[in-house]
Design a protein that fits this description.
The complex is a heterodimer of chains A (415) and B (310). Chain A has 415 residues and is mainly alpha-helical. Chain A contains 19 helices and eight strands. Chain B has 310 residues and is mainly β. The N and C termini of chain B lie far apart (58 Å). Classes of the chains: A mainly alpha (415), B mainly beta (310).
Chain lengths: 415, 310
């Protein structure tokens, strides 16, 4: 009998413990003690009034300050319990689901760059009105390269086309880029004016934004700024519109480009080249129109890092503090020839020659470099990149080692 | 006394267990880690020196089993270097205007060099006996006008496999250097390297997708593996592959500066070497070749040398 009592006591204790663990894991705020005392000191910040608002963040409204803050000590600003991103995700688990593309603040866990964790007069606790908020980071000059604006963009309805957190589509689009325009413009495809504008070529299923700027342009129909010369005469490159394969290219592979861009093919007749299957020029260039110079498909970083994903990972490495200024600007072509090269790592010339085009002083005065020098470790000539890692380093001047400790003794071992 | 005795027994037992564990360790470890970093020793490193001069941008390498010579494409210096079986420098083949930039080569059983020259967009046949340099006949190759040569490989029957980078295909040429057929075609990816194992299976590598694809001798796809990623066994920037006598697949990762080894089914086993300048380390390696005696030749492009492992 006594034993039974003991057993039931133990099981009751265990059960209550389990219930406690379960409830606290479901929502850490559920078993919070009262934090009403916080308001007695923090009243000057107007917190009391804000907690009364029905639009306030739920734990804040219920004055469960301890769900996010530690009242005693913390390693984080404002005594929050964890880093902002991790803290938010502990309740907002849906936001933690894996998606292909993330908005940068989401990726960096910087939720408070858009949301106020306590209270906001705007919907969804946004720190500014939905239309204005996006433009606090995305400069209007770059988003609107012209005066003619697309309807939703004009009304600052960014969320009509983009998700604010993450998406499985490029540019955080709410729909695949080949389908998104059709969600509103499906009837336009049958409009004789649209058919005529596309010179009777079939455009259903096409990537509209490759030629039309979805935000703004100075050109009619929001076509992008720079036109490829034969753009108005489609048959220069394509089969006639009434042929069996109207969008087919008239010549094999990149020959259709090289026939006009004479001499460019020689850029690809090198040891290192970016030659790929078919009309590979269009991997980086838009054959119709573009807002970028040389009809590039986008920013250089976007183009280059689409394939060089490991370089992207490296650029995102937070341990790398020092970067070459051109790399910071995303100007890969400042040091690399994007077509082809007979030199290491797609450099347009010998390593020292490339560096000294900008670093002129170093051409005259530096540690001995060049053909006459020998790196005792590898037995090859010493160049700038023997000591500098221009893709990013943890050390000043993008040095490969700490110059106060290990750099020089790599070779000067007797010191 | 009893305690002491007990202690003595347990100590003895411990010693026994230790011995058994050590014995098992010795038995098991060499099987599982038969090729780990430590067991790959560097044989030698071929660098610039007075005899060779300054090495330029190194392309492909080939160990010719018939002549027991190593041939190295010193691409930017427009020459092919030859070394003897002990890797002593012998001579440089510089055919002059006929060859501008040797980027890769194979050698047929009758001693002809088949050399890829990307700067001429052609594949050349160098006959050292007749002292002639002629382009390989592409007249029967479809889409020959858009052909752009990539890496080259040869099987034991003297069949030559050439990557056409601009058309994502592997072209097969017979022992008499006549075009046979397009043996592999994959429009979805750019092929970076091709190799043929001793059984005649063809292996291709795609850098951007980080995929190794194995085809049988008829060109039918039989295996595909690999992806790009940050984890162990995943590729950063794979650029070249080779197959050893046991059927293990070696992939050179240029940006990880190492060699990753997979079994015949594509399961990652281990990797060896890492970024560095000293002997045995690699800096942006670009090519790998394995000879019949399983010596591994890695073109260490960043260090301007060839590292030979065993």
């Amino acid at each position: 009998m006594r034993q039974n009592k003991k057993l039931s006591c133990v099981s009751l204790f265990l059960l209550s413990g389990l219930i406690f663990v379960w409830t606290s894991s479901v929502c850490p705020a559920a078993n919070m003690p009262s934090y009403r005392k916080c308001i007695t000191c923090h009243e000057h910040e107007g917190l009391r009034q804000e907690t009364m608002s029905p639009d306030a963040h739920a734990p804040f409204r219920k004055q469960q300050c301890g769900s996010c803050h530690d009242p005693h000590t913390s390693n984080y600003k404002f005594l929050i319990k964890e880093e902002v991103g991790a803290l938010c995700k502990s309740c907002h688990t849906k936001r933690a689901e894996m998606q292909e593309v993330y908005h940068l603040p989401v990726e960096e866990g910087d939720c408070t760059s858009c949301h106020d964790p306590h209270f906001s007069k705007n919907k969804r606790l946004l720190i500014a009105k939905q239309g204005d908020l996006c433009f606090t980071c995305h400069e209007p000059e770059s988003i609107f390269p012209g005066d003619r604006k697309h309807g939703p963009a004009k009304q600052k309805q960014c969320l009509k086309c983009h998700y604010p957190h993450g998406s499985d589509n490029e540019w955080l689009l709410v729909e695949n880029k080949k389908k998104i325009c059709i969600t509103c413009h499906s009837k336009d495809l049958k409009d004789p004016r649209v058919i005529k504008a596309h010179r009777s070529y079939p455009v259903s299923g096409a990537d509209c934004v490759s030629c039309h700027n979805p935000h703004a342009s100075d050109k009619k129909n929001l076509t992008r700024k720079n036109e490829h010369e034969p753009f108005k005469n489609c048959t220069t490159c394509h089969n006639p519109p009434d042929s069996k394969n109207p969008l087919g290219i008239r010549k094999a592979g990149a020959k259709v480009c090289f026939d006009c861009h004479k001499g460019i093919d020689r850029d690809f007749m090198r040891i290192n080249t970016h030659i790929a299957n078919g009309m590979f020029c269009t991997n980086c260039h838009n054959p119709h129109v573009s807002d970028k110079s040389s009809l590039k498909k986008g920013n250089l970083t976007r183009i280059c890092l689409a394939c060089h994903t490991d370089s992207k990972w490296r650029m995102e490495n937070k341990k790398i503090k020092y970067q070459h200024p051109e790399r910071k600007k995303g100007k890969c072509t400042a040091c690399h020839d994007p077509h082809g090269s007979n030199f290491r790592l797609f450099f347009p010339d010998k390593e020292i020659a490339v560096c000294t085009t900008c670093h002129k002083r170093h051409a005259k005065f530096s540690h001995p470099v060049g053909d006459e020098t020998v790196d005792p470790r590898s037995r090859r000539d010493i160049t700038c990149i023997t000591c500098h890692d221009l893709m990013g380093s943890r050390y000043e001047f993008e040095l490969r080692f700490d110059r106060g400790k290990e750099l020089c003794i790599q070779c000067h071992t007797s010191y | 006394m009893k305690k002491c005795n007990l202690f003595f027994v347990s100590y003895k037992r411990c010693l026994k267990y230790l011995l058994v564990v050590n014995f098992l360790f010795l038995l098991v470890v060499p099987v599982n880690a038969s090729g780990k970093t430590d067991s790959f020793s560097i044989v030698t490193t071929l660098t610039s020196n007075e005899a060779v001069g300054r090495l330029g941008l190194i392309g492909g390498v080939l160990f010719d089993e018939n002549s027991q010579r190593l041939y190295v494409c010193d691409s930017s210096n427009k020459r092919i270097l030859s070394y003897d079986s002990k890797f002593k420098y012998l001579d440089a083949l510089q055919p002059g205007e006929g060859l501008n930039c040797p980027a890769g080569l194979v050698r047929t059983n009758n001693g002809k060099f088949i050399v890829v020259d990307p700067t001429k967009k052609s594949v050349l046949v160098i006959d050292t006996r007749k002292r002639s340099v002629k382009p390989l006949d592409f007249s029967k190759v479809p889409k020959a006008d858009s052909f752009f040569p990539g890496r080259i490989a040869m099987d034991s029957a003297d069949n030559i496999y050439i990557i056409d980078r601009a058309n994502s295909r592997v072209l097969l040429f017979g022992p008499k250097l006549q075009f046979n057929r397009e043996i592999v075609r994959d429009d979805t990816r750019v092929m970076s390297d091709v190799k043929v194992d001793r059984k005649g299976s063809i292996y291709t590598l795609s850098t951007i997708e980080g995929r190794v694809t194995k085809y049988d001798a008829s060109g039918k796809k039989i295996l595909e593996f690999g992806k790009r990623g940050k984890d162990k066994g995943e590729f950063s920037f794979p650029v070249s592959l080779a197959i050893d006598g046991k059927g293990l697949i070696y992939v050179v990762d240029q940006h990880k500066s190492n060699v990753m080894v997979f079994d015949g089914k594509g399961k990652f086993l281990f990797d060896f070497s890492r970024f560095g300048w000293r002997e045995g380390r690699l800096s942006f390696p670009s090519y790998i070749f394995i000879n019949n005696s399983n010596k591994i030749f890695v073109v260490d492009r960043g260090n301007s040398r060839i590292s030979i492992f065993r």
